[in-house]
Amino acid sequence: MKRIWVALALGALLALFAVAPASAADEVTVTLSAQNDSGEMGTATLTAMGDQTRVVLNLTGAPAGPQPAHIHEGTCANLNPQPRYPLTNVENGQSETMVPVSLTALMNGNFAINVHKSPQEAAVYVSCGNIPAVAQVAPGTGHPRTGAAGWLAGGAAVIGALAIGGGALLRRRAA
Ligand SMILES: [Cu+2]
């Protein structure tokens, strides 16, 4: 029986490696550039959490705040002023939000993240970054996206392990 478990463990391990690169690509960093001479710039880190996405903003040159922040449709150059997904107010350059939309949808929807000067001066944009489309990101990060290939490799590993295990079992029965 021992050989079966070794084979199964090996198969599970191989399956894990086959799927692992997908999770690395489930995080995207958006560069936030200063607008209107604000000097506020930094990053937005988007992490896939199933059908939700965690959005973490990290800005330097930011005031204490609070500063409203949103995901808008459009690009920083041509932003739909109506926010699509509100983000937690930026305070001291920091903000973290779970938005109820998948990272894939965000990356296929032509969205941008922006920060406003203050609740009183929301019309003044101080920082913005375009969420890149999936096709533009995959080559840049060097991580392959989740694909059928990964699942096929995982499945093949499991089937291989079962075959090895089954063979060992048959040999044992025959002996
Ligand atoms: Cu906004």
Describe the structure.
With 175 residues, the protein is α+β, with helices and mostly antiparallel strands. It folds into two domains: 2-22 and 148-174; 26-141, Immunoglobulin-like (Sandwich). It contains four helices and eight strands, in the order αββββββαββαα. Strands 5-4-7-8-1-2-3-6 form an eight-stranded antiparallel beta sheet. α1 (2-24) packs antiparallel against α4. The model is unreliable at 19-24 and 136-145 (pLDDT under 50). Copper (II) ion binds at residues 70, 72, 83, 114, 116.
**Secondary structure tally, helices:** 4
- CATH architecture annotation name of the largest domain: Sandwich
Bound molecules: copper (II) ion
- The CATH homologous superfamily of the largest domain corresponds to Superoxide dismutase, copper/zinc binding domain
Give a quick account of the main beta sheet: strands, pairing sense, barrel closure. 8 strands, antiparallel
Radius of gyration: 23 Å
Low-confidence stretches: 19-24, 136-145
Mean pLDDT: 80
Derived from helix and strand composition plus strand pairing, the structural class reads: alpha+beta
Morphology: elongated
Q: What is the spatial order of strands in the main beta sheet?
A: 5-4-7-8-1-2-3-6
List the helices and strands and how they pair.
Elements: H1 2-24, E1 27-34, E2 41-49, E3 52-60, E4 67-75, E5 78-90, E6 94-99, H2 103-107, E7 111-116, E8 125-130, H3 134-141, H4 148-174
Antiparallel strand pairs: 1-2, 1-8, 2-3, 3-6, 4-5, 4-7, 7-8
Helix pairs in contact: 1-4
This protein binds copper (II) ion (CU).
